[in-house]
Amino acid sequence: MSKKLPQEFTNRMKAYLGDEYDAFIASYNEEAVKGLRLNPLKTDTLPDGFELTGVPWCETGYYYDGEMRPGKHPYHAAGVYYIQEPSAMLPGELACKAIRKVIDDKGYVRVLDMCAAPGGKATHMAGEIGDKGILVANEPVPSRARALSQNIERLGIRNCLVTVENPEKLAECFAGFFDVVLTDVPCSGEGMFRRDDIAVEEWSVENVDNCILRGRTITDAAHICLKPGGYLIYSTCTFEPGEDEDAIRLFLNGHPSYSVADIAIDGFSPDNGMYRIWPHKHKGEGHFAAVLKSDGSPCGGENELPGRISQTVRFLPGTDRKTQEILTEGLKDILTDEGSEQILAGEIFAYGDNLYVAYDEIAEAATGRRKGTRLRIERAGLHLGEVHKGIFKPSHSLALTLKPHMCRRIVPLDAKDERTYRYLRGESIACEPDLKGYCVVTVDGYTLGFGKATGGMLKNHYPKGLRWSP
């Protein structure tokens, strides 16, 4: 075996797996698989030229081979898909099935991803939520929260609040609030050993024990956040039973109102309602997931409030009238009437010169009106842009949320057009001579960003931090 694994880890796995141990160890000599997951907010079918095999446990997941570089394709910049290790798609898929049940029953869903960075599971769930509810995606580490926010932006997700808080603060603010809570808890990372040398180096028995304790704290906070009758999805990327099956049993013993939920994935069988992916049995790394359901007993929160989405534009106090007029006229110039109606559902509020629109419940939390509790926030709904020196400048977030039919002016490109790559590098490109003002640049019908047209040239407004290297 080429990879050096911790001796105590191999001893544990040998005792755990018995006759399967040799096959398990042999899997470390095999190449790790790669995958991507389509973004339903952009498309529900593979783009032309993408001939990929589906991931068995994920409806929108696909494998790709090592020669393909989807991260260097314009479709990635447009948020058409999210690159994700295939086994990591499992908990998001289970959560999506729970979300679907809630929407079918109530028409609206509130979802919390308690440990969301870098965004694989949050973006997965957002694709299922669509415009039928809200997502709170939390990450306590600020640098990781920024990466999470960038992925939320790239995939065109508008109904999301990205917070930077510890689980206890979320429990204080959102007791009994969510229909679905996903806790992909920090773990010892054993399931990633084949592809992550750092996880191997950092493994220790002490770290495993610390992860077990930390997982309990996070799961208890998740319970407080969950509405009676809601679904709690617990997951790790480790093989250690103390972090997985034993953790579930301990939680169930301490919370008798819960049971393992009947959430099925076609062609993939759970063990006592709990799912495992093994590298020697499946085409993926190691992952564990289980779905628990509350029986509906009270847990002390706002358990029966209906979801609220404004159908008309409402500016919150603090947004001065001149700013409102500039924003309204600026958006009217960029968006069609249908586009404005779809984008501006909710409350509009300002952080300095920057303007956001959010569904009511996100706006309440973002502006400190929810129980008077102030949260550390990285992203609050959809960033529309900024009003500076009397001029509205639309944001990149707004561009990635739009569909072409929502825009008054479009510069349509395709993945074979050299102008697409020049645009992504931050260069000006030629456009139709009659275009004037802000235009949305598209690649094969997917929005990439804004530019400003004049005299047959499009001045580039693609963010400098995202521009491709020459």
Q: Report on the biggest sheet.
A: 9 strands, mixed
Structural class: alpha+beta
How helix-rich are the residues, as a percent range?
A: 25-40%
Principal-axes geometry comes out as globular
Which CATH-level-2 architecture of the largest domain? 3-Layer(aba) Sandwich
CATH level 3 topology of the largest domain? Rossmann fold
Beginning-to-end CA distance, first to last residue: 40 Å
Radius of gyration: 23 Å
CATH top-level class of the largest domain: Alpha Beta
- Summed up, the domain count is 3
Q: What is the percentage of strand-forming residues?
A: 15-25%
Average pLDDT for all residues = 92
Using brief descriptors, characterize the structure shown.
single chain, 470 residues, alpha+beta, Nuclear Transport Factor 2, Chain: A, Archaeosine Trna-guanine Transglycosylase, Chain: A, domain 4, 3 domains, nine-stranded mixed beta sheet, five-stranded mixed beta sheet, 15 helices, globular
Structure, explained:
- This protein is an alpha+beta fold.
- It has three domains: 1-305, 3-Layer(aba) Sandwich (Rossmann fold), CATH 3.40.50.150; 308-407, Nuclear Transport Factor 2, Chain: A; 409-470, Archaeosine Trna-guanine Transglycosylase, Chain: A, domain 4 (Roll), CATH 2.30.130.60.
- It contains 15 helices and 23 strands.
- The chain has helices at 7-17, 21-26, 74-77, 89-106, 120-129, 142-154, 167-173, 197-202, 205-225, 245-254, 321-334, 337-343, 360-366, 396-401, 418-424; strands at residues 34-38, 53-54, 61-64, 81-83, 109-113, 133-138, 160-163, 178-184, 226-236, 258-260, 274-277, 287-294, 313-315, 346-351, 354-358, 377-380, 382-388, 391-394, 410-413, 429-430, 437-443, 446-454, 457-460.
- Strands 5, 6, 7, 8, 9, 10, 11, 12 and 16 form a nine-stranded mixed beta sheet that branches.
- Strand 2 and strand 3 (61-64) form a beta hairpin.
- Helix 4 (89-106) runs parallel beside helix 5 and helix 7 (167-173) runs parallel beside helix 9 (205-225).
- The longest helix is centred in the middle third of the chain and has 21 residues, at 205-225.
- The radius of gyration is 23 Å and the shape is globular.
- It starts with 6 loop residues before the first helix and ends in a 10-residue tail after the last strand.
